[in-house]
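ugh ok fine here u go
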Amino acid sequence: MLASKLLCDFWLGNGTRIITGRTDCKAIMAGTGTEETVGLTEEKEKRVVKPTLKRLEHNLQKKITSRGAILSKLSEKRNELHALMDDDVNEENIGEELLTKYEELIKEFSEINEHVKELFCQTGCEENMNTDQRDWFEPRYST
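structure:
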């Protein structure tokens, strides 16, 4: 029995059945039903898709837009937390759930910024990345 998917199953003129899989090839001899390994083939690697510069720039713009949307959600949660903390009555009502959601958004914001930095590097725009980090990300992340 083959461990990998069946890719080819055919009969030779002499009645021998050939079954090939991704990493092995077996022959079932005519009339006997016995299996013999007749050869091993190496699994071919899939072609690596290299995105074009235009695709990278498109992905970069999508990530930058997503980063802004996450920042908006983060600001909303931060304002909600501040409003609850300013009211002494609600101070103990600040739940773990709200704090956890805020921390998750901070983590997501940082991760998407890492993707933005990677895309800047892939497009060959390290100078633009430095400017983006200095002028956009750092002032917003520190507040």
